[in-house]
């Protein structure tokens, strides 16, 4: 199983530094979720781990080798990356998209093989897309389209899968559908999954390991129950909240403070009103 880590990693665009001197090691065979406020560098970090962004300094190590010195196809045989909101050419079918996952294994000397076909067939089966394989990707629903892209990454047959906000723009039903799929891939096949998520409660539910990014560096990392606290939510997200235990999963559950129909506030207001009435009487 492949290992992935970063040493003294500094990332940015032009003169702007987004991540500064960061060290991180991704646990093998686990689900790791990157969390943090908007613009903190989560997606930038994920892009660098996937060799889509060259570091200003430092290095990313994949299976004991500097990823910047590896051949593109060799990286693609070890790691699959699904960027945020990918697009497909018009008219491309699900089957044609999933076939793209076998690109790292193709060359002038090695054409499409039985092994390639079996990998595509299995990826379609695992994502429940077999019956939709001849449909054009742009005709699918948001959840189906996301599953098609995940099927393409599965066809690469890598131990590592990196995903940038895989549930963006999906309703709650399809968010759970995608996260359940990724959870099963980890549990059943031992795949190492690294993803960026905005929903903290879902991150806690599905992650073995959480990395919170703040001020260009790792603010905290570890098991969800160790990392996600009221203090972290205040410092990383600048948000006051209560952190309770999820009654179904036993994982941390954040309840944000803010305006709304708060039952406690309503009860307090009613009690105060009743007390004032009694005083007048």
Which secondary structure elements does this structure contain, and how are they paired or packed?
Blueprint: E1 4-13, E2 16-26, E3 31-35, H1 42-49, E4 57-62, E5 65-66, H2 72-78, E6 79-82, H3 94-99, H4 114-126, H5 142-155, E7 160-164, H6 172-189, E8 192-196, H7 200-206, E9 209-214, E10 217-222, H8 224-227, H9 230-237, E11 241-245, E12 252-256, H10 263-280
Parallel strand pairs: 3-8, 3-9, 6-7, 7-8
Antiparallel strand pairs: 1-2, 1-4, 4-5, 9-10, 11-12
Helix pairs in contact: 4-5, 5-6
Domain ABC transporter: 4-240
GO molecular function, one term: ATP hydrolysis activity
Pfam family, one: ABC_tran
Walkthrough of the structure:
- With 281 residues, this protein is of the alpha/beta class.
- The chain contains ten helices and twelve strands.
- The chain has a six-stranded mixed sheet, with helices on both faces.
- Helix 4 (114-126) runs antiparallel to helix 5 and helix 5 (142-155) runs parallel beside helix 6 (172-189).
- The chain is globular.
- One of its GO terms (cellular component) is plasma membrane.
- It is a peripheral membrane protein.
- Its main location: membrane.
- Keywords: ATP-binding, Cell membrane, Ion transport, Iron, Iron transport, Membrane, Nucleotide-binding, Transport.
- InterPro entries: AAA+_ATPase, ABC_transporter-like_ATP-bd, ABC_transporter-like_CS, P-loop_NTPase, Siderophore_ABC-ATPase.
